[in-house]
Amino acid sequence: MDWQEIVSRALSREVRAVSRLISIVEDRRAGFEDVYAAIYPRTGRAHVIGITGPPGSGKSTLVDKIAAEYRSRGKTVGIVAVDPTSPFTGGALLGDRLRMQRHSLDNGVFIRSMGTRGHLGGLSRATSGVVDVLDAAGYDYVVIETVGVGQSEVEIASLADTVALVQVPGLGDDIQVIKAGVMEIGDVFVVNKKDRPGVERVVAEIRMSLDLAGKYSGHHGPATAMAAATATATATAAIAANAWHPPILQTMAESGEGVAEVCEACDAHMRCLVTDNALVERRFRRARSETMKIASDLIWRGLADDARTLGAAEGLAWKVARREIDPYAAGRDLRELVVS
Amino acid sequence: MMDEGRKIRVLVAKPGLDGHDRGAKVVARALRDAGMEVIYTGLRQTPEQIVAAAIQEDVDVVAMSILSGAHNYLFPRVTQLLRERGADDVLVVGGGIIPDEDIPGLQECGIAAVFTPGTSTGDTVKFIRENIKR
Fold it and tell me: What is the pLDDT of residue A299?
């Protein structure tokens, strides 16, 4: 198959072609930019949902059940499951699929596992491209499962239309939820393993955190009043303009309890994005971040491939090491050389 | 530290009904440490599920382990399904408790190598590196 044929077959959702196209994009094989140009006009139709949360919080099981729920509603689902690549050997054990194998014979579900391949942030560098392939192939939903995240892997927020942040009881105290980072990116909060002790506390802590951000509207207690009083004019305006209030849902992914509500919340979030005209904004942000990343990759590659700049970089680095100039001055000199 | 571009992708699967996956996990770990991307699908997989997963994941290799004695049915069924789906460029290897006299028959059915107990994981890695078809 030449690439035109792979593209045309992938666009009609032929599994083998979709799969091959993903490899071309993921490995940046020869001609991948032509392939990308051919599929890109067909993207933008899928609802992209990111599922993120700490290791062992039940993300894979939840994704499995979310896929089943959307399938029961007659929708098709593409899944991208990311697991970490070893920084030492470059190898990876991709185990998310283990919990999703019952979908493997269903033509309406496509599952692809990816290693992070040296990229930080919870995704791999190529995840965005793989999402685009599944989107172009016509899957109604593309669900991305990030690696198990710690506190600062928030890249999913710039890729997904809706981010579901999964938490479980027993991971830490209430300071964890007021820290900056992943707690700020949830459009839907899922407290999984709700049969475990401490679930009410996790829910209360997330609620408090949302309250302080002026995002929670579930009750009108003192915390809400306080938040409203201290909120900036913008935040108050946003509340008035019917902004999205992230729901906090309790689930037991293993049994499927609460999963339908998660799907409904994701759909409701998408409807809200559309009515508030916020979808355009989100997708613009994604396009901007992707464009900047690609440009910086290309510039960096140009830099690393060019003997003249490499020589200059080495000379400047020696000067910095000998304390003759500071690293910012060296960086500016190098930039002058590259753009001139 | 890491190579960019192409990586060897391997699906490690346990077809059939036996519940012993220690060997499969040891192999999965060894392939990971050899720099490969290993997709682990777990226990009790049907040949149909294994082949569907191999195609979606676009793997170079399918590695299966069987301890139940059903290898003469399950291994050839996987290679047959791969051929039917046009994916016969995938290297298929097997391991587990396989009597010596069954090995030539399995190789005729397209199982490129059968690794029985005592094989070093280094040999498995080397065989895969030298024999992948694409």
Answer: 81
Q: Predicted ipTM?
A: 0.91
Q: Which residue has the tokens 């685009």?
A: A132
Q: Give CA–CA dist A76/A106, Å, rounded.
A: 10
Of residues A28, A85, A95, nearest to B5 (C-beta): A28
Q: What stretches of B22-133 show up as alpha helix (H) in DSSP?
A: 22-33, 47-56, 71-84, 103-108, 121-131
pLDDT one-digit tens code per residue, B6-55: 899 999 999 988 888 888 999 999 999 999 999 999 889 999 999 999 99
Would you say B62 and B92 are in contact if contact means Cβ atoms under 8 Å apart?
Answer: yes
User: Terminal CA-to-CA distance of chain B, rounded, Å?
Assistant: 24
Structure tokens at A298: 């290309």
pLDDT > 80? residue B111? yes
Residue A39 identity:
I
Structural domain boundaries of chain B?
9-131
Within an 8 Å CB–CB cutoff, is residue B52 touching chain A? Answer: yes
C-alpha to C-alpha distance for B6 and B36, rounded to whole angstroms: 10
Q: Does the B9-131 domain belong in CATH 3.40.50.280?
A: yes
pLDDT of A205-240, one tens digit each? 888 888 887 776 654 444 444 444 444 444 444 443
φ, ψ of residue A252 to 5 degrees: the values are -130, 90
Nearest to A217 by CA among A192, A250, A243: A243
- Among partner residues B35, B40, B87, which is closest to A89 by beta-carbon distance? B35
Mark yes or no for CB contact A91/B48 under 8 Å: no
* B44: contact with A, CB 8 A cutoff: no
pLDDT at A193: 94
Comparing CA positions, the residue from A173, A151, A145 lying closest to residue A64 is: A145
**Residues of chain B found within 8 Å of residue A105, distances taken between Cβ atoms:** 48-49, 52
Q: What is the pLDDT of residue A277?
A: 86
Q: How far apart are CA A51 and CA A66, in angstroms?
A: 10
pLDDT at A117 over 60: yes
- Structural domains in chain A, CATH included, are 43-295 (3.40.50.300), 306-339 (no CATH)
B87 shares contact with chain A (CB less than 8 Å): yes
Best residue in B7, B81, B88 to probe A by mutation, most A CBs within 10 Å? B7
- Residues A287-340: tens digit of each pLDDT: 998 999 889 888 877 777 777 888 888 999 999 999 999 999 999 998 888 777
Residues B83 and B102 sit within 8 Å (Cβ to Cβ) = no
Residues 6+ apart with CB under 8 A from A198: A169, A170
Residue A259, helix vs strand vs coil: helix
Half-sphere exposure of A221 (CA within 13 A, CB side): 9
- Quick check: B88 and B111 in contact, CB under 8 A? no
